[in-house]
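Worked example 3 (structure in, sequence out).
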């Protein structure tokens, strides 16, 4: 199982995880945010995720390359007449290639849609998370509340937890992008009123999502509960 070495060498501000509840739309939040960064010439790479439901009631999951908009199916039906799906290992392998290429391209920000149960048990994109964190590439992801303990164990509790809120994510990026040695990769016209989650308020702190602009990734506009 891929693990992170030398946790003491990791800058905790480089690793941010949006903590979300079942009713939050973390997929849309991440997609809209990275698309807005790209409009301001920030080099963003990685994947975001889209969920939708077919006419027969089955759920479909797509990973979308944020640099190109290419769609990768990461789900497959369990069988004829099945009403559910499972993760497609071939699709996940393609998504992993997208993430690895973004790291080789030395992007300003890497986004990986989420750290969830697959990553918690050593599968999914866990190895790519390790690679990104150990390289020191600024990383933005999302973590479901039920996987918070797994995320903390994986990172050694190093990193920044954010509310599932646009302003919180913007504030984190302002801190990261304005540090010495990094270029000013944000628009000064944005407002930065986000609030990072104090550890003592982890189970209670909630902020209503701020209004966010229409995303050019129209495929991500259908609101749906996170799995």
């Amino acid at each position: 199982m891929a693990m992170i070495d030398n946790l003491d060498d990791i800058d905790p501000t480089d690793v941010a995880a949006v903590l979300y509840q079942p009713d939050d739309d973390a997929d849309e939040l991440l997609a809209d945010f990275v698309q807005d960064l790209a409009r301001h010439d920030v080099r963003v790479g990685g994947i975001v995720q889209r969920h939708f439901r077919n006419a027969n009631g089955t759920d479909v999951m797509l990973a979308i390359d944020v640099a190109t908009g290419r769609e990768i199916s990461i789900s497959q039906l369990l069988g004829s007449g099945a009403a559910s799906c499972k993760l497609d290992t071939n699709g996940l392998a393609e998504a992993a290639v997208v993430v690895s290429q973004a790291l080789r391209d030395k992007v300003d920000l890497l986004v990986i849609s989420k750290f969830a149960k697959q990553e918690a048990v050593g599968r999914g994109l866990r190895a790519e998370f390790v690679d990104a964190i150990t390289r020191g590439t600024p990383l933005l992801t999302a973590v479901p509340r039920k996987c918070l303990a797994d995320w903390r164990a994986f990172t050694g509790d190093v990193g920044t937890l954010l509310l599932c809120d646009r302003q919180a994510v913007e504030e984190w990026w302002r801190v990261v992008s304005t540090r010495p040695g990094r270029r000013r990769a944000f628009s000064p016209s944005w407002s930065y009123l986000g609030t990072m989650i104090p550890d003592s308020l982890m189970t209670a702190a909630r902020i209503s999502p701020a209004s966010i602009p229409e995303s050019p990734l129209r495929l991500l506009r259908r609101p749906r509960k996170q799995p």
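Notes: Helices lie at 26-39, 89-104, 117-120, 126-135, 148-155, 166-177. The two ends are 24 Å apart (CA to CA).
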